[in-house]
Design goal:
Blueprint (H helix, E strand, L loop, with lengths): L1 H31 L23 H16 L1
Helix pairs in contact: 1-2
Amino acid sequence: MASAKKQTKQDLENKIAELEAKLNQLSTQLEAKPAPKPAETKPAEAKPAEAKPAETKPVQLTKDLDHLVASI
């Protein structure tokens, strides 16, 4: 049983490393993209901006990492 638990722990550590690499790659891609310049509008015509959901991949990877770390 100890060897099975040790293997499971190693599998989890490998998965964490893989997810961290993906998270770092996505973060680098986001940082590399220049921020879009907002279009100039007159204050009287300005409408409240609708909230757009943020990208879920980095958040999901972070949640996966947290879950895996908690499992160890």
